[in-house]
Design brief:
CATH architecture of the largest domain: Alpha Horseshoe
Signal peptide: 1-17
Strand content: under 5%
Pathway: Protein modification; protein ubiquitination
Catalytic activity: S-ubiquitinyl-[E2 ubiquitin-conjugating enzyme]-L-cysteine + [acceptor protein]-L-lysine = [E2 ubiquitin-conjugating enzyme]-L-cysteine + N(6)-ubiquitinyl-[acceptor protein]-L-lysine
Shape: flat
Number of domains: 3
GO biological process, one term: protein ubiquitination
Structural class: mainly alpha
Largest sheet: 3 strands, antiparallel
Number of strands: 3
Enzyme class: transferase
Strand order of the largest sheet: 2-1-3
CATH class of the largest domain: Mainly Alpha
Length: 416
């Protein structure tokens, strides 16, 4: 006979057995779906108090302290000997984990998938209004969802669908709002997916739509398209970059945007730099007026836009492998003078180094460039630069340019 107390326990276990089993299954599902980056490499559990070592590896505080207390003086992952055993709280990771927990750790949440599947169905609807409503929701969700949630968009193949909507349908040619919304969603999703999806633009009809949108589109559309062009500077999308770089019409449009000095110009500069990363595009860029556009952009750059000025000078350096680019720079009414002004940049030594390097190239080959540079005060600028706290690499280049400009025995340069 089973004692009454034990009977109660037995009855309880019989009644609750299924629930306990379901609970353990649910816990196991949550355990499996913890993002890899949210697990401590030592305990393999969700971080509670993430801290980072001097090696850059992050561990849970309790786990790494146990490791040290056991007499270990190495990083558990890299096995590097630690000269500095200090630990720094990783507040960014802690914030991401907190956000993840608030949204619900069930990564495979069926309600989320069902909701996005419904949005995808609306995008495939022939009704324009359904598409617009779906795009509005996608834009909001892509802002609100953290990165691991956004991957649902990738799993459900949203990007190819959105690209097809923009470049493969007739809607974009007659509805500006749809085009702007769809492109905005594409740009938000792009960092989370494989860039190979962009290869669909290689299709002749889609490429024609791309070029038409760039020519006729609004400022918002052109900004998004410049972001897309910037994304093509990768091995996976090299062919797309090549095809875009061989459209003189597109390149001239980009040059016009760069010359404007507007908000769109900032993205256009990045697009141009991506295009000139391919050697096959450089001659076309020079013929489209890239040197003129970039010089105008640099001359209008404010101090706070120093990084963009650096990107602009990177374009010039890439193009200067061509004689036509050198001639375009020297022949520009204030090309040399603009570069001279960039020689001594207290706030940005990288700009100084780039400007000195570019001037060295054209002054070596063109006597006129040397005369203009000296007339624009380059000698004074170089002396100021050498007296500043700039790096040794910049000073070496500055001395070389100074020697080149002062020398009376250099080979006679060719004239333009």
């Amino acid at each position: 006979m089973v004692p009454f107390g034990n009977c109660n326990c037995l009855l309880l276990s019989l009644v609750c057995g299924n629930n306990i089993q379901l609970l353990s299954m649910k816990e196991a599902q949550i355990e499996i779906t913890i993002p890899h980056l949210f697990r401590c490499p030592i305990s393999l559990d969700l971080f509670e108090d993430p801290v980072t070592l001097s090696t850059g590896q992050t561990y849970d505080r309790s786990s790494i302290e146990k490791w040290f207390s056991a007499g270990n003086l190495t990083c558990p992952v890299t096995m590097q000997k630690l000269r500095d055993a200090s630990i720094v709280p990783n507040h960014t990771l802690r914030h991401l984990i907190d956000q993840w927990l608030q949204l619900g750790p069930q990564f495979g949440n069926s309600s989320t998938i069902d909701h996005l599947a419904a949005l995808k169905h609306s995008l495939e609807s022939p009704e324009l209004e359904n598409k617009l409503q779906a795009l509005e929701k996608i834009r909001v969700l892509s802002d609100e969802y953290c990165s691991f949630r956004k991957s649902f968009f990738h799993q459900l193949s949203f990007l190819p669908l959105l690209l097809e909507l923009v470049f493969g349908s007739e809607f974009t040619k007659c509805d500006t709002k749809l085009t702007e919304l769809a492109l905005s969603c594409i740009i938000k999703l792009l960092p989370l997916v494989s860039l190979e999806s962009l290869n669909m633009i290689k299709d002749e009809s889609k490429l024609a739509t791309f070029l038409l949108l760039f020519e006729k589109g609004t400022s918002s559309v052109k900004t998004s398209l410049c972001h897309l062009i910037d994304s093509t500077a990768s091995p996976q999308t090299e062919e797309v970059c090549h095809m875009l770089g061989h459209s003189q019409k597109l390149l001239r449009e980009i040059v016009v945007l760069v010359r404007q000095g507007s908000e769109v110009s900032k993205v256009a500069i990045k697009a141009m730099l991506s295009l000139c990363s391919l050697q096959s595009n450089r001659d076309n860029l020079v013929r489209a007026g890239a040197i003129d556009g970039v010089i105008i952009y640099i001359s209008g750059c404010e101090t706070r836009q120093k990084n963009l000025a650096l990107l602009a000078m990177a374009i010039i350096k890439n193009l200067l492998v061509l004689e036509s680019a050198k001639e375009a720079l020297v022949n520009h009414p204030y090309g040399v003078a603009t570069l001279v002004k960039m020689v001594f940049r207290v706030c940005n030594q990288e700009c100084s180094e780039s400007a000195v390097g570019i001037l060295a190239i054209i002054c070596r080959d063109f006597g006129r460039a040397r005369e203009e540079a000296i007339g624009a005060g380059v000698l004074t600028q170089l002396l100021f630069l050498l007296q500043s706290q700039c790096g040794p690499k910049t000073k070496t280049k500055a001395r070389m340019l100074l020697k080149l400009l002062r020398s009376k025995w250099i080979e006679e340069p060719k004239q333009v």
